[in-house]
Amino acid sequence: MAKQGATFNAFAAQGSVYRISALVMFTWALFHFVFSPSSSASISNEEAQAKARVALQHKIETADVGPDGFKIIARDYFEDFYGAQECKISSTRLYNPMTKPDGSLVRPYCDSKAKLLEALSGGGRVGFNAPYHPRSCEYRWFDPEEICMILDRFDAVIFIGESSMTSHLYGAFNSLLRKNLAWGALKNWELNEQQRQRCRCDSQYTNPQCGGSQTGSGDHFIADSAEILDAKEEGTRVGAPYVCNRVFHGIVNVNSEPVSQSTLEEIDEILTTYHKTAKPVPIIIQQGMSLGFNWDRTTKVIDAISKQIELHEPNPVHRPVLWLGPTAAGHLKPPGAIIEQGNPALHHFTIELAKRAQDRGFDALSLFNLTLQADSFDGTMYSGDVSLTTAMMVVNWLSRVESL
């Protein structure tokens, strides 16, 4: 109390007398204690920043160099995925953006959907099977939880294509959401132990008895998200449970021209069941291989699908479409197929069909450059690396689609 009185006397000596209650003094002291940065806190924060800079510099200096010649600074998004170690795959093998000596990106992220698709279509690899680099700007690699947030912007997402190529893409899409690289593309609950061992890792894409068949025989690929949710006790089965279950997504197989009435009805049923709000329903279309990459027949399939979708949803804003071009031909392509399905023919098909898709208001993504320097196990189909990368490219497109 003597100390407090001395304080008041000092104020009075200056010609001002203040009646300050003990409660106000306590509140003032508490406010400054909580909200004013103390010198020790500032020092601690500066020390933490300095340590972070040193740690980053050490990481850069000691980082391994990838097959593309660039240091691997990006984090491994697959580090907690089931089967990552067993399958010997990390996301840095697929995604390794170029960085400066200080760890920042050499090129910025693509700032628009148009630039993103142009960069992804026109990129390349610095060496065979090296990570794929888009042209002029970078794309992102998303966590499964971030993918879920992207999907939440839509009523549903529909993949439409052939039972071979598009099933690989959709299978990889499910692997990302299930955080499962061992058999995340497959209905693992219907596989016996022998099949689980046979169909693990890349074999889920390359083994015809699992899901790698061009004809679709022995196909254990997941058809839609409802199959996963309907599988009893999915969370207790071998492998990780499903991470995202709020938005429907599925694949509709189209393997003929003209498109069958049952296929068109399947598309309509999905839209009728799940397109209940003003949210868009993005549609990914990939077609051509089952039709011998014939330009006109493929266009007829696209138009038949578009017409069916427009009957249900006339507003193009609510039904954005991404056209996916074909993959390049590998060196194991059978000699008899080189003329119609060799790289010169596929390149012409890629350019022409992308133009026709864009004339119809679709976005277009070419996969030709992505697969030109990648291993193909039969000259046509590719391993999980390509499918996972393609799936992430589709997710990047979804992240740029306008939504209410």
Briefly characterize the structure.
44% of the residues lie in helices and 8% in strands. It is an alpha/beta fold and 404 residues long.
Structural class: alpha/beta
CATH superfamily: SGNH hydrolase
Along the chain, the helix and strand elements come as HHHHHEEHEHHHHEHEHEHHEHH
Percentage of residues assigned to helices: 40-55%
- Give the total of domains: 1
- Give the distance, in angstroms, between the N- and C-terminal Cα atoms: 64 Å
Reported CATH architecture? 3-Layer(aba) Sandwich
- Report the strand count: 7
Q: What does the main sheet amount to?
A: 5 strands, parallel
Average pLDDT, rounded to a whole number, is 82
Number of helices: 16
Low-confidence stretches: 1-42, 214-218
Estimated share of beta-strand residues: 5-15%
CATH topology: Rossmann fold
Strands ordered across the widest β-sheet: 4-3-5-6-7
What is the radius of gyration computed over CA atoms, rounded to a whole number of angstroms?
28 Å
Shape: globular
The CATH class: Alpha Beta
